[in-house]
Amino acid sequence: MSLSRYVRLSLLCLMVLLAGAAAAQTPFALRSVGQPLDSEDARMVARGGWGLAESDTLNPGFKNVASLYDLRHAVVKFTGYGESADNTDITGSRKTTRTLTPDIRVAAPVIKGKLALTAGFELYRSHQFKTQVDQVWYAWDDTVTGEERFQREGTFFSVPLGAAWQIRPGLVVSGTIGLANGTIRESVQTLFMDPATGTGVPLYQSNGRVQEDKFSGTAYTVGLLLSPFDRLQLAGTYTPAFDLDVDRKVEMGGVGSRFRETWQMTMPARYEAGLQLGLSDRWQLGADGQMQAYSEFVGPAEWDDVMVDEYSVNFGLERLMAFERKGGTGNLPLRLGVGYRRWAYQLGGSDVIEKTISGGTGFPFGQRMGSLDLALSYSMIGSLAENGMESKIWRMTVSVTGLEKWW
Amino acid sequence: MTGFKSLLHIPTGLMAVSLLLWAAGCTSDDPNTVGTPLVDGEVDEVLVPLEMVDMEFFTGKNVNNPSLPHQRQEALYMGEQEGAASSLLMNFDFGPGSEVDALPDSIFTTENIVSVDLRLLMLDFYANLTEEGFTKGEKALETVYELYRLDAPFDSTAYPAPEPARDGLDLNTNPIPDISSEPNISIAPVFFLDWVATGGQQGLTVRRGVGSQPGLVGYSARDNKHPASTLADLAEGTRVGPVLKVKFVNPDTTLNFGSYADASTFHQVDQAPADMSDGFFMRSSLRSYPFFRFDMAALPQNVFINRAVLAVTVDTTRSFGNLQSMVVSELPEELYGVQGDTMPLPDLGNWAYLITGMTNLDPTYHAELQFNVTVAVQRMVNDVYEGERGFILTAGETFFPTYNLTAVPSDFFFSQFIMFGTNAAESLRPQLRISYSSVDELTGGGE
């Protein structure tokens, strides 16, 4: 497959992912640091999320930059997903959908088999939800009816620039500088609809408060990939705690002045470890674990009481792609996995637990110069009994990987 | 390998199609209450009521119209009402070159003149007033006209001013209450003949006599440019100003001799009060427009004005005149000037920043007037302007085309909206009723 062809296909996928569906996610994202996102491609998602110890040169993973050391080609990878969520809380239920492109990565070998460089764009936390409730106010002799709308939106994202270097066979190290940025924008609008003039213009002008926090900082990550035995690979990454400068603006529509303040927020250290074990020529299993000590998070005081360490474990199986003549669908990869995550904050005095089951497959491009991978996953977040709300999410993840000869 | 590659087209296509269908079929439900237990963002104060009644300043701005001086007004006013009193003045020419001079002397004899009347045309608005529509139970149109000779022709540029000196003899030979919209004040022909014989100019004044019902009534002036909309059906060629109507024997005809100048004396006109405590007014024709600013100190900084209403209450038992628009505008405080000074109308047009207004207000009917001044108060909160600004209440001037809906300019009808002052009962006094919302971060200051 030529470069231009897979670029076209990638653009098609992106257009599909970015078009149509309204943007909303789980109401859990209304709180604190929002919903965690993983920098996993569809292949990793399908097998439960593991991929730290990956070292596939034809379908490389970016979860651990160290796994890129052995690249033979320049690679570009887009990952996006669309999801549909059924959300329930004590007030009712709501179905939400959204599409997102959380991950775009490129990498290229510098010294084949030894040194590779990577760059990209990665979303790692997301906040996106709206609420609306009917309200009644009283002003002078008027009973004013309308709605109160709240919207939280924004992402934490990083522009990672990294390098992977094989020190000696079986030992690879990596380093990444992540230019971390983000925004949380919270707006509340009070819409006064009645009383109104004869032409329908409300007598009372609606107002809103908008609070926007912009975050910027730099994170450093080191990674390790070990191959102590044939078919066994071990990996780990460590991201020390880092500061984010926060610039807060509070505005009220129609008011000439605005409030502004700055402070620092400290993101806690993140630890990741993973393994990959080949069971046979085509079958392998793997597991990853991550922990980020959000109990040590330093941020807005109103978040402090509910912060807990965020951790996750992922486990899965994969049947690798084959290229047997007349192999048909038997050549296709099969991936299955499960994931378990405790979110960084509690709700209703209880942990927010996310459980995921997933599966997927992939399709190689011609001459093995890339692939199209997809995963279908089902997640359950929270508990109506424990947290006062829960979300059940179907998600389709698509990754397009393109390889090109390096010159 | 070729077969496998071709096989790839199928799943790739299926993928694209299924993604398209999936994305197209996914639509979020509208936002609802789901998630509200987690919402902690809010507007700290919503629709907080704040009433302002104290005034920082007040003045009644007299406004004149240089392009339409008093002697060229289109309407004449006679009578008394709520502090305004006026008589009609008119000058007739009997000298060389006059209409009379063009006729043969032989027709101006006692035997040849059947009758002489001073004819006036009452403005249609006053002619059509009902008892309910004028002075609440008193039909003002019943008038006893008194007609006097002036000691000398009046100077039309001198008015408004006290009434000029006049002869003590009432020339009206039939001084009974008249309800006609086209009154004809009978004059003994001998007086007319004397004026003709004397030649030169003759000034007359018409006053409301004893027995008239009270009221200030308008008549058409010779400069009335709007006869079709202000007078009842007129015959072709009718002269709209005061005329001396003379009926002759030979030839058997009636001739009308028009005045060459007319005016209203407005020998008594209330000046705007020094403060609002006991009431204030907005007046058209002889314009007097109230200009004031509320004490805004109680309004927190950086709040959002959801609604601000300027409420004034018209004393409909005292107010009078034709329907008018009432317009609220902003005016810089440097135009405050001194009490009783006069501002040219073009200056007002240049400086006034329109906020809102109402049309077709009947001063005898519309009592509670509420003007939406939300945007103006928000501008004040936001310190948009250098210096302070106040509100001015005006009629629907031509530079407010949205509210200038009548066929005649604001100079035409003498309408006076008398409003209750700050000492009146709570429900009647002028006030600024504000509803605002605030967030704590901003009320403490901002950038």
Topology:
The complex is a heterodimer of chains A (407) and B (447).
Chain A: H1 3-18, E1 35-36, H2 42-46, E2 73-89, E3 92-111, E4 115-139, E5 142-168, E6 171-194, E7 207-229, E8 232-239, E9 242-252, E10 259-267, E11 270-278, E12 283-292, H3 301-304, E13 310-319, E14 334-347, E15 350-364, E16 370-383, H4 384-387, E17 389-405
Antiparallel strand pairs in A: 1-4, 2-3, 2-17, 3-4, 4-5, 5-6, 6-7, 7-8, 7-9, 8-11, 9-10, 11-12, 12-13, 13-14, 14-15, 15-16, 16-17
Chain B: H1 2-25, E1 45-52, E2 55-64, E3 75-81, E4 84-86, E5 88-93, E6 113-119, H2 124-127, E7 145-149, E8 184-187, H3 189-198, E9 201-208, E10 215-220, H4 227-230, E11 243-248, E12 254-258, E13 261-264, E14 280-283, E15 288-294, E16 304-313, E17 324-332, E18 342-344, H5 345-351, E19 353-361, E20 368-372, H6 374-381, E21 389-394, E22 416-419, E23 431-438, H7 440-443
Parallel strand pairs in B: 2-18
Antiparallel strand pairs in B: 1-23, 2-15, 3-4, 3-10, 5-9, 5-13, 6-8, 6-11, 7-9, 11-12, 14-22, 15-21, 16-20, 16-23, 17-19, 17-21
Keywords, separated by commas or semicolons:
heterodimer; A: 407 residues; mainly beta; 17 strands; elongated; B: alpha+beta; Jelly Rolls; six-stranded mixed β-sheet; disordered N terminus
